[in-house]
Amino acid sequence: MPAVQVMRSVQVMRSEWTKVRTVASTVWTLSVAAVVTVALGMLISYLSRRDFASMSAEEQLTFDPTFISFAGTSLGQLAMIVFGVLVVSNEYSTGMIRTSLAAVPQRGTFLFGKIAVAAGLSLAVGMVTSFAAFFLGQAVLGPYRAHIGDPGVLRAVFGGGLYMTLIAVFSMGVAAMLRGPLLSLGILMPFFFLISNILGNVSATKKVGRYLPDQAGNRILRVSPLLDPTPYGPWGGLGIMVLWVLAALAGGFLLLKRRDA
Amino acid sequence: MIEAVGLTKRYGAKTAVDDLSFRVRPGTVTGFLGPNGSGKSTTMRMILGLDRPTAGHVTIGGYPYRKLPNAPRQVGALLDAKAVHGGRSARNHLLCLAQLSGIPERRVDEVLGVVGLKDVARKRSKGFSLGMGQRLGIAAALLGDPQVLLFDEPVNGLDPEGILWVRNLMKLLASEGRTVFVSSHLMSEMALTAEHLIVIGRGRLLADMSVKDFISHNSADFARVRVPAIEPQQREKLTAALTGAGGQVLPEAGGSLRVTGLSLPRISDLAHEADVRLWELSPHQASLEEAYMRMTQGVVDYRSTADRRSGLQEPLPPGMQPLPVVPPAGQGQPGWYAPPPPQRGGTPFAMPRPADDGYGQDGGGRAGRTGPAGYGAQGSVAPQAYGVQAPGAGRLEPSAAAPPAPPASAPPAGAPAHDTTERDSEDRR
What we know:
With 261 residues, chain A is an all-alpha fold. Helix content of chain A is 79%, strand content 0%. Chain A has one domain (3-258).
């Protein structure tokens, strides 16, 4: 990469960092993501601990304390989606995109600089959230808890942070394609909250549904093997999710490049 | 230098910009005029490489914008004053843009001073008035100290003082050898600001000439003649006499006559011979606004129709006559010629007129933007329209506090101007 190009990228990232830290929505969405993930994880952990004795033998055998403490992810990820969508679509809803692209005519540099900064921030928040959710969840689980040193547990906790980040970046790619915040959120929220869960768990659609980004990425949060094993492992699942993210980013980039701003 | 060659933009079946070719030269303010929807903004976006032309091309200094080395330091633009995140402070907004272009942070505070927003620099731009938004947009355009500046409707929403400030700023920037391209739909504003005009309508080039040429080509002299209102037959008599002598007579709303093709002394003689008393005989020049409206008359996209209020009218009580409807002279009316004279309906001679331009100043401040006041004062600022307190007491004054205070005799708008020069030369050092 030529030196000018590097300088340009650094400038974009500095500017994007200023952008992201000077709007209230960043703090709101990311803190909601963290708080909801951790708190809901603790609540489910508490309920699981209380009901453990009344579970069937099979349920007790497949009991996955790590995964239980990540139960809040399903809701917390929605706030990450909002963050990812707003980071990109704010440019369009305010009209800033024109000023930005006039300043950086290299649209790829602009888009990927922006996404790099937002992804970095998501990763930091995601990791902290994931570790907090694990340790606090395990503390609540008490006698049934897992330890960070147990096989596969550290991988799952790290994976939790990566999963949150990838969800946010996927949303950024989708928002870059759709531009408007309402349309992006209107598609992403119901998809990840309902549709994907239905498709991934109803037996008729399961075979296809489990290749959806969140269903596949989810796999990394599980430590004990599932009753119904997936054709991919934890990292394989995350890999599938990465492919989805790359596709969304490529789509966003191509559209941004071609389209009139 | 901005150069467009055969620039065309189509959106589906609609052609927004149609084979537009023009040059914008450095060192002068070039006005870009056209009615709403005539393709001004689309052209501006194509200049900035935001929209891709369907055909033709536009270059800045010989480069298409996207290939321009270090574009944000060479070109500054105000496209849309509302294009800011309302939750971000003015200073942070400019900081984002500065960092994006590799401009040092202290320049942000400089431009905030130049546009007079220093006091609200840390306030969220959500609470800004339209005028403050425009100032913020202008600050963003000035950030990179660029040689080429584009402003899309920069005076929208500004108060008279702000308009004067923008006007002087444009002229100052041009006098420093920069290329200044300003769009507007107000001819009156451009006549005072620009030296060169590019007029478009429905995306096509209508005129590309200096303001001086535009005036001499498009404005016609005429005389306004008024006879005592109580004697309508006198008016007919005079009309016949003037027409007989080869003049063209056009009745105006309000009872006066607009006479062309006869000199003032001749009109006076003819009136005397016809034994008609005159209450008014005054020389006038058709304003640029009229010339502009004539030029763009056929290419206005959004035309208003008369409001008939048919659904709102109550049936009149028996025996009452409906009020006579006097159609206002205006666009789209049969026999439309020009905007109604300001005297219409008012007392014709009660208004003291400071200048010999003959136009009353209805509504003081508004006149600068929409009213015709000041057309006559070509090139010079009509001071009576903008008499802002004492010199040096303007709102922009705080910005000049940093450098040693200019002499008290400096005009208010001179203060920020002085500021820019000083700051800019600092930058170069």
